[in-house]
Amino acid sequence: MSSPLLQVKGLTKAFGKVVTAREIDLDFEAGVLTSIIGPNGAGKSTFINMMSGSLSADAGAITFDGHDVTRLPIHARVGMGLCRSFQVVNVFPGLTVFENVEIPTLVNRRRAARFFSPRAKETQVRDQALEVLNLVGLGHRTEVKASELSHGDQRLLEVAIAMAARPKLLFLDEPTAGMNPVERVDILKHIRRISNQGSTTFVIVEHDMDIVFSLSDRVVVLHRGDVICDGPPSVVQCDEQVRECYLGQEVM
Amino acid sequence: MITNKAYMAFGLLLAGLVVLGLAGDRFLLYISMRIMILAIFALGFDILFGRTGLLSFGHGAFYAGGAYGVALCYMHLAKDPLLCLLAGVLLATGLALVIGFFCVRHTEIYFAMLTLAFGMMVFSLIWNLREITGGDDGLVGVGRQAINLGLFKIPLRKESEFYFLVLAFFTGAIWVAHRIRTSPFGLILAGIRENDRRTEFAGVNIRNYRLAAFVISGAMAGLAGGLGVLLESNATPHISHWSHSSDPVLVGLIGGLNTLAGPLVGSLVFVGLKELVMRFTTYWMLFFGVVLLIILLGFRGGVVGTLVQRLAGRREVRS
């Protein structure tokens, strides 16, 4: 049996007296679509920030794809295929939609440092960037400035930028926040399909329960820095402790 | 279509400059050379300021590095102008590498203040290391020997001869800036300006890219400084002063940031205006300031930026 894609051992982080991660042990297998849920302040953001490299852990180890990445900087983790998207819109506002996706694609194809040859010659980069844009449904708006897109389309672009780095493991931080229901269904369909293709493993951090239970193979529930439940949606849905601290009575 | 027009415009500009070099009088040639040298300075600076979004107040140090490099090479090592220029650019590049290494760790106002501090350090070094730099007298008597190509020599002594060397480097600088702007590297720099955090999450080591932009702009500042000392035949410490570092900032703001034509137009306006105003009044700084204010307030995005917007607006109305 192969080792998991991402392995977290004894991960701990505290801000003053507030413990946002308490000796978290989690394994993420390749190809298993996982969701992380939890009430506000559960430590979801801290967890994602520690995985992507924005925050350093107080203790514990993170192993990705067989390498210890605990102390690696952000760009090195992205280079290995560990990537994230953001909860708020985080695009390149002054650049065109195509250029937004072109940046991570250039890095992915190791063309970013070329400073004396025209970008127009990078046809493989162009094809790969267009492929990603078509995947999220922005293929027809390549020359529009990102700042001129609607909020929903900017969210799609956000996901496209993250996907363009061709990550092995992609953390999506509330991918549907601010989207209308049609866009929401669309993007989820895309995520499910890409996940089934198997080249990218998704870990989704979400509030929306419908999404979590309809989409995921596995659900992890965080509460005040602890993992209180971990399993398939059907099991998590029925768990007493989860119901108590998070889901409330109205869900059942 | 637009790029074809741009190529034609630059072709016309170069043809005009060649004609000017053949027909112009000494004063006109001198002013044109000053404009071109400032433009080289500003073209490099725009890669850092306009493209990457990092505002430096210390690039006078690299200009001075090029100038003193040329003067010291001329006095102690070799008199060939191309060798001297190479020495000047190398000195400026090395200086930019060391200073940049520390500065690119910060952004925005912290970056600006660090560059200012390093720039003033270089200034005080030049001012105090009298044995090497000549202190406040500077280094004088840098001549323009002929370039020796073995079979024949290219003389540079006369203004009309040196002009074509400056023109050649000016053309080269435009070409280099154009290549960088349209390259993958150039897009990454724009990404860093627009959203440095996101660029990092695209897998870019942004510190290295910032440093590269810093060093490229420093090297071009050094080339400008080297040509400047060959033109004026002396290097004085004030070229490393922060007030000289602000020249390419103003040129960029006048001409337009993050455009290829901006530094060219800005340099033309900057030098032309200064010469013009100085003829009529001894209080030229005051009038220069007023005219600068009008340009900066009236032409948001610089002269080039405003023209491009106007043209784009008209095209939209027509179609």
Task: State the gist of this model.
Chain A has 252 residues and is of the alpha/beta class. Chain A has helices at 44-52, 74-80, 97-108, 123-136, 151-164, 181-197, 209-215, 233-238, 240-247; strands at 6-15, 18-28, 34-37, 59-64, 67-68, 82-84, 169-173, 201-205, 218-223, 226-231.
Total number of distinct structural domains of chain B: 1
Task: Give me the CATH architecture of the largest domain in chain A, please.
Answer: 3-Layer(aba) Sandwich
First-last Cα distance of chain B: 16 Å
Distance between the termini of chain A: 37 Å
- Major beta-sheet overview of chain A: 6 strands, mixed
Helical stretch tally of chain A = 9
Q: Largest beta sheet of chain B, briefly?
A: 2 strands, antiparallel
H/E series of chain A, N to C? EEEHEEHEHHHEHEHEEHH
Which range best describes the helical content of chain A: under 10%, 10-25%, 25-40%, 40-55%, 55-70% or over 70%?
25-40%
Oligomer: heterodimer
- Backbone shape of chain B: globular
Strand portion of chain B? under 5%
Major β-sheet strand ordering of chain B: 1-4
Chain-averaged pLDDT of chain A? 85
Number of strands of chain B: 4
Indicate the low-confidence ranges of chain B by residue numbers.
none
Cα Rg of chain A: 19 Å
Q: Please provide the count of β strands of chain A.
A: 10
- Estimate percent helicity of chain B: over 70%
Structure description:
The complex is a heterodimer of chains A (252) and B (319). Chain A has 252 residues and is of the alpha/beta class. Chain A folds into two domains: 1-81 and 167-252, P-loop containing nucleotide triphosphate hydrolases (Rossmann fold, 3-Layer(aba) Sandwich), CATH 3.40.50; 89-166, no CATH class. Chain A is 37% helix and 23% strand. Chain A has a six-stranded mixed beta sheet with strand order 6-7-8-3-9-10, sandwiched between helices. The termini of chain A are far apart. With 319 residues, chain B is mostly helical. Chain B has one domain: ABC transporter involved in vitamin B12 uptake, BtuC. In chain B, 77% of the residues lie in helices and 3% in strands. Chain B has helices at residues 2-23, 26-51, 60-77, 81-103, 108-128, 130-133, 159-181, 184-194, 196-201, 206-232, 242-255, 261-280, 284-298, 302-318; strands spanning 139-140, 147-148, 153-154, 234-235. Chain B has a two-stranded antiparallel ribbon with strand order 1-4. In chain B, strands 2-3 form a two-stranded antiparallel sheet. In chain B, strand 2 (147-148) and strand 3 (153-154) form a beta hairpin. In chain B, helix 3 (60-77) runs antiparallel to helix 4, helix 11 (242-255) runs parallel beside helix 14 (302-318) and helix 12 packs across helix 14. The radius of gyration of chain B is 20 Å and the shape is globular. The mean pLDDT of chain B is 90. Chains A and B meet through helix 2, helix 3 and helix 5 of A and helix 8 and helix 9 of B.
